[in-house]
Design goal:
The protein is α/β, with parallel strands linked by helices and 192 residues long. Helix content is 26%, strand content 16%. The protein has helices at residues 36-44, 59-66, 110-117, 146-149, 170-189; strands at residues 17-22, 49-53, 71-75, 89-90, 99-100, 106-108, 125-129, 160-162. Helix 1 packs parallel to helix 5. The radius of gyration is 17 Å and the shape is globular.
């Protein structure tokens, strides 16, 4: 949770950037600023940058949120079926040139994220609380999946992607992720 900054002394700890995003229409424990969930995360990681995006996010804001994040968490809806052979996640409508799913919903795709992250630092931990993103029976090719967009594959070292092969319950997974992070913070305090 507090990786060593290789550019300096091995005793110095690098400040991490945590990003939490509530997607369009998703039920989340961090649904408003100052929620208990948000307070717990801030208390567990007082020396790190923590950013919450509440109540839906547009494509451009989601891309901005991902860029520079070390730990990225998204609670959102996928839109089925996959469009043009790739996964997609629902985002808030905006006046920008929205990509639309045939169901009329504004979406973001793995190609959008991959393009936005090209040549940039990518998150070390990506936790997508989104239904069916790791259901490999959906016929979506590996290069059209969200883990690939973040540069995380089976052979990746020092990075992790968490997704679900089934429908998820957003609020329940919010709680699981918070507990995981708080457990990691406690282990770090104990030097483990």
């Amino acid at each position: 949770v507090t990786p060593v900054n290789d550019e300096h002394s091995s005793d110095k700890k690098r400040k991490l950037k945590f990003v939490f995003v509530q997607g369009q229409g998703a039920q989340a424990l961090f649904y408003k600023p100052g929620s208990q969930y948000e307070d717990n995360i801030r208390k567990a990681f007082p020396n790190h940058t923590i950013k919450f995006y509440h109540k839906g996010i547009t494509r451009s804001k989601l891309i901005e949120a991902i860029q520079g994040a070390d730990i990225f968490y998204l609670n959102a809806h996928s839109v089925s079926p996959p469009q043009d052979g790739m996964q997609n996640i629902q985002v808030a409508p905006s006046t920008e040139n929205d990509k639309k799913h045939p169901k009329g919903l504004s979406i973001i795709t793995p190609l959008d994220i991959k393009k936005a992250l090209h040549g940039r630092k990518t998150p070390k931990l990506v936790y997508l609380n989104v239904c069916s993103l790791t259901d490999y029976s959906d016929g979506v090719a590996s290069r059209m999946r969200f883990n690939n967009a973040f540069g995380i594959n089976d052979g990746s070292k020092g990075k992790a992607f968490v997704g679900f092969p089934r429908k998820t319950t957003g609020i329940a997974e919010d709680k699981v992720f918070k507990e995981l992070l708080i457990r990691m913070a406690k282990k770090d305090e104990q030097g483990k």
